[in-house]
């Protein structure tokens, strides 16, 4: 039996699943994932009921996947939660004799932090832990409808949920991935230690009585594991006028090499990109499809770009006045590929907030990586919402994952990191997924 991926939106405990069109996007480097969906109402009763449930400001949950026809289990029950968010807009259109269409738009819970200005009195003294700073900043949204209360430094479970594997059937391997994310041996990682550490927003190693294995840091874009992030402290965290809460937190997190994103269940994650994971998907486009390894890319483009790249970045830290040569801290990093091409494009950055050599080096690498991240970008459209979805059992597409790509037309072969993913449905094309990928290691925090 051939399965078809579906989307369920849960609002006020009621599930809506018959959509005319939808677009559900997730972008790793852009806060607040969004959704746009349209549903038809054939009767006045249906229209009025959905209008009440889809009122702007209400909290919703979005699930994606295939229902289990054999057991009758719904998508919601099978653990494929994609997003917990808030409805932003509702538009109702209709024509005489043509029925009514309700179009709803919204974003995940990060939208609250993106839209709100940071309070000017949210000042934290030097030595405040980053996790505590974030917890204090999001505390105004602890009540309904947001219920934004949890700060996490490991999103292993959330990433499994996004791919439709959050039901615990892969618990043994997941435990190993969680241990690696924290930098611990798998035999010292336990649920009891994890729960105790999460309650205290503390490193798990303190409860597991184990040291972080330095080798696990190599697979992280920032060289940090979850336990390292739990220990990070900030300097005096002074808000800037007009800065949003997200901008305020992101500024301090990035300075420490930390990326923020929302987990599907509404937890705010402080983490890092991990490049040491196995490829979960395979994307193929050849001149002639191989029956044993068939093409699955419907359309796509590969963009190679040198315009945004620089040949060398020099970062100067805190100094008096404008005399950069007297800066006590400075760091430089070069792009060997640009140098080999003979392209001379130096970039100089002055940041008075940088006070250590490590911070200067991290900033220099990050500035160099901004251009490298766009040096090779893959954009593909594929059928369905996951790999091997004909029987409903393959993994759903998600960001933060690795795909093995074999694109004969564009001359691409290797493993690439997924930064963007959009689920779509339309009358013309049915259910599809749009993916954006970059080279592994090109994003540096």
Reconstruct the topology from this structure:
Blueprint lengths: L5 E6 L2 E3 L4 E7 L6 E8 L2 H10 L5 E7 L15 E15 L3 E10 L1 H6 L14 H9 L12 E2 L3 H7 L8 H12 L8 H10 L4 H4 L17 H6 L13 H11 L3 E4 L5 E4 L9 E5 L11 E8 L7 E5 L13 E5 L1 H5 L5 E5 L6 H17 L2 E8 L18 E6 L4 E15 L3 E10 L6
Parallel strand pairs: 8-10, 11-17, 13-15
Antiparallel strand pairs: 1-2, 1-5, 3-4, 3-18, 4-7, 5-6, 6-7, 9-10, 12-16, 13-14, 16-19, 17-18, 18-19
Helix pairs in contact: 3-9
Note the main attributes of this structure.
Phage tail proteins - horseshoe like beta roll fold, 3-stranded mixed beta sheet, 11 helices, Phage tail protein beta-alpha-beta fold, alpha+beta
Summarize the biggest pleated sheet.
Answer: 13 strands, mixed
Proportion in β-strands: 25-35%
Radius of gyration: 23 Å
What is the number of strand segments?
19
Principal-axes shape call? globular
Task: Walk me through this protein's architecture.
This protein has 445 residues and is an alpha+beta fold. The protein folds into 4 domains: 6-108, Baseplate protein-like domain - beta roll fold (Phage tail proteins - horseshoe like beta roll fold), CATH 2.30.300; 112-271, Baseplate protein-like domains (Phage tail protein beta-alpha-beta fold); 281-305 and 375-439, Baseplate protein-like domain - beta roll fold (Phage tail proteins - horseshoe like beta roll fold, Roll), CATH 2.30.300.10; 312-371. Helix content is 22%, strand content 30%. The protein has 11 helices and 19 strands. Strands 1, 2, 3, 4, 5, 6, 7, 11, 12, 16, 17, 18 and 19 form a 13-stranded mixed beta sheet that branches. Strand 17 and strand 18 form a beta hairpin. Helix 3 packs antiparallel against helix 9. The radius of gyration is 23 Å and the shape is globular. The two termini are 45 Å apart. The mean pLDDT is 86.
């Amino acid at each position: 039996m051939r399965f078809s991926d579906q989307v369920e939106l849960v609002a006020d405990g009621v599930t809506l699943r018959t959509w005319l069109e939808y677009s559900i996007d997730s972008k790793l480097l852009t806060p607040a994932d969004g959704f746009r969906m349209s549903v038809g109402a054939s009767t006045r009763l249906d229209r009025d009921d959905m209008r009440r449930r889809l009122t702007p400001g209400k909290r919703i949950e979005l699930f994606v996947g295939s229902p289990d026809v054999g057991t009758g289990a719904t998508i919601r029950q099978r653990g494929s939660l994609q997003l917990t968010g808030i409805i932003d807009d509702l538009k109702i259109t209709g024509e005489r004799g043509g029925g009514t269409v309700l179009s709803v738009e919204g974003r995940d819970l990060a939208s609250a932090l993106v839209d709100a200005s940071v309070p000017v009195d949210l000042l934290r003294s030097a030595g405040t832990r980053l996790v505590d700073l974030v917890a204090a900043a999001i505390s105004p949204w602890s009540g309904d409808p947001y219920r934004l209360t949890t700060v996490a430094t490991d999103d292993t479970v959330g990433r499994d949920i996004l791919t439709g594997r959050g039901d615990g059937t892969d618990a043994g391997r997941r435990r190993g991935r969680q241990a690696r994310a924290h930098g611990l041996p798998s035999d010292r990682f336990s649920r009891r230690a994890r729960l105790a550490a999460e309650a205290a927003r503390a490193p798990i190693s303190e409860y597991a009585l184990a040291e972080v294995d330095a080798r696990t840091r190599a697979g992280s874009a920032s060289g940090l594991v979850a336990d390292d992030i739990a220990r990070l402290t900030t300097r005096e965290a002074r808000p800037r006028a007009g800065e949003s809460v997200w901008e305020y937190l992101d500024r301090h997190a990035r300075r420490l090499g930390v990326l923020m994103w929302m987990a599907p269940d509404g937890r705010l994650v402080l983490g890092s990109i991990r490049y040491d994971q196995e490829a979960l998907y395979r994307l193929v486009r050849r001149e002639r499809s191989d029956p044993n390894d068939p093409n699955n890319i419907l359309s796509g483009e590969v963009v190679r770009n040198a315009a945004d790249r620089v040949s060398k970045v020099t970062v100067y830290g805190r100094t008096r006045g404008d005399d950069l040569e007297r800066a006590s801290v400075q760091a430089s990093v070069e792009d060997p590929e640009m140098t080999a091409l003979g392209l001379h494009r130096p970039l100089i950055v002055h940041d008075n907030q940088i006070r250590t050599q490590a911070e200067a080096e991290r900033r220099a690498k990050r500035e160099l990586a901004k251009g490298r991240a766009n040096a090779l970008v893959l954009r593909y459209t594929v059928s369905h919402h996951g790999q091997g979805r004909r029987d409903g059992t393959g993994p759903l597409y998600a960001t933060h994952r690795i795909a093995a790509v074999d694109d004969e037309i564009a001359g691409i072969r290797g493993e690439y990191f997924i930064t963007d993913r959009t689920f779509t449905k339309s009358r013309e094309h049915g259910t599809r997924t749009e993916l954006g990928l970059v080279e592994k290691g090109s994003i540096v925090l």
